[in-house]
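yo

u said u wanted the structure for the complex thing, so here. seqs first:
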Amino acid sequence: MKSRKKIALILVLLAAVLFGAMLLATAIGAVHIAPLDILKMTLNKLHLAHFDPTWRAVEEAIVFQVRLPCVVGAALVGAALATAGSLFQGLLRNPLADPYLIGTSSGALFGLTIAMIFLPATLSFSGFGITSIAAFLGALGAVFLVYTLARIGGRTHVVTLILAGVAVSFLLTAISWFLLDVMGELHWKAGAIYGFLWGQITAVDWSQIAVLAPIIFVGIILATFFAFRVNAFSLGEEGAAYLGINVERDKVLLLGIGALLTACAVCIAGLIGFVGLVIPHIIRLAFGPDNRLVLPASALAGASFLVLADLLARTILAPTVLKLGILTALIGGPVFLYLLLRYRREYAF
Amino acid sequence: MGHLIMKDISFSYLNGFSLRQVSLMVEEGEMVALLGPNGSGKTTLIKLAAGVLNPERGEVLLGEARLRKLSRKEIARRVAVVPQSFNIPFAFTVAEVVMLGRTPFINTLSGEGERDRSIARRAMELTGIEQFSKRTFNELSGGERQKSILAMALAQEPKLILLDEPTAHLDINHQVEILELVKGLNREQGVTVLGAMHDLNLAALYFDRLVLLKEGAIFAQGPPAAVLTEKTIYDVFGATVHIQQHPSAEVPHIVILPKENNPR
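structre next:
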């Protein structure tokens, strides 16, 4: 068991890494902007200081209207996915669990499909396009459906939950593609669908962040508060009950937090694989499996990872922007394999 | 007044197995074993006593309190369960596993305190596992794991320990070690023990009173010598045995006799 001081130190270090990553990602692009200028203009903007501008007005516009919203968006998505991933892995006692396991991804695709086909594309609410909102609702709806289906006699068994998740995912995915194909939307909107499936952080603005950031922050903090209960779930549901955990209530609560975090991420960026799966594993291998550290550390590391991945996606083939999900899979896959081969014993259970 | 009272308990599973009006009392400081063939209801009774199953009829009392009225947390502060084993999918250390025993006492906001740590340390000393407290639980032998789980149970500071075949997967030396530990806790700390046991001879050696179950009902109960007779064992298990006096303890010892058509 790590002492509080050690936990705090690790979290401060990871936060510093995140800060550095965000600064770097804001500085680099078609126009390079000095990191020091970025710091100064941000402090000015927050009315925390008043530096005389050593930068051009257009640079300030690039930072605040183009780059920073995307960087913050990437950080939020990475934090949300990595937290949801570690939550689901701990709760379902399944190292292969990722945030999309219990239906969120297919539910989001289904919502997106319905919105594309049946609703006018110009609809929007507080900065969110209708497809984002539909994806958000679809993700939550699918988890609710999976949970309801898996509920037998007042209890929801983990294995049933995972199986119901897989079944509902296949079904919703099939229906979505069928509709897109038959209704002819696939040809017209291939770009948008492709962008959703492989994830991208492009059209993020501050009004979206203002809505989603509080939800994601509260979700991560709640998950961290309940981390010792996630630890108890490591013994299985019966073992957790022996330790005084109200298993069914806490399962709903923790699954709900994870689903909400995932839906927020989907809403900003579509589907981005591997962050939610790999980051928690890396954190566990580095710092041990205590969820009181794993949950907040995954949030910070996931945020840094996605900010840097998004930077790479924007820059390596500039001006072409790679799909973020392709990049995370290209980095995450080999890293995961390396960890698996190197720490094989840790995974033998 | 008993410490654990199960009054006219009825319970049935969907698969047809049922407990029929079982009544059982365990006195404070007593050590009682539940015996019987597979499917006779031992584990079901343990789970009913732990409150993870609720009886259809009848009532479970824990001291003065009705189990049904207590929250999970309140139960976990009084009752600890040691199952056959736990499978933990992540690389928790032994110290971390033992600390899980403090879960029902940990405040969500403040986390574990010095008191929790010292109780967990004491539990590890009592079970003799301090020397591998930093090792990964999954890498331990079955006996070491079971001692760690016992330490976790002790960290709950329970009045009552429920054992669910705690020695089922262990070598004979570890079986004895675990039961010696439990017996010591029972004698020295006054912890009440109710345990489902597979091995009749071990049960006779370590438990004060035996309760023999057959098909969801109590067939016989009392001190070992009264319960373990050639007749009861034939009636309940269908096995022919010879009962001897244990060479060093005042308890019966069961000798298995081969079937008559298979003599050596």
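The CA atoms of residues 112 and 131 of chain A lie 5 Å apart. Chain A touches chain B at residues 1, 4, 90, 93-95, 225-226, 228-229, 231-232, 234-236, 238-239, 241-247, 284, 288-290, 292, 345-346, 348-349 (CB under 8 Å).
cya
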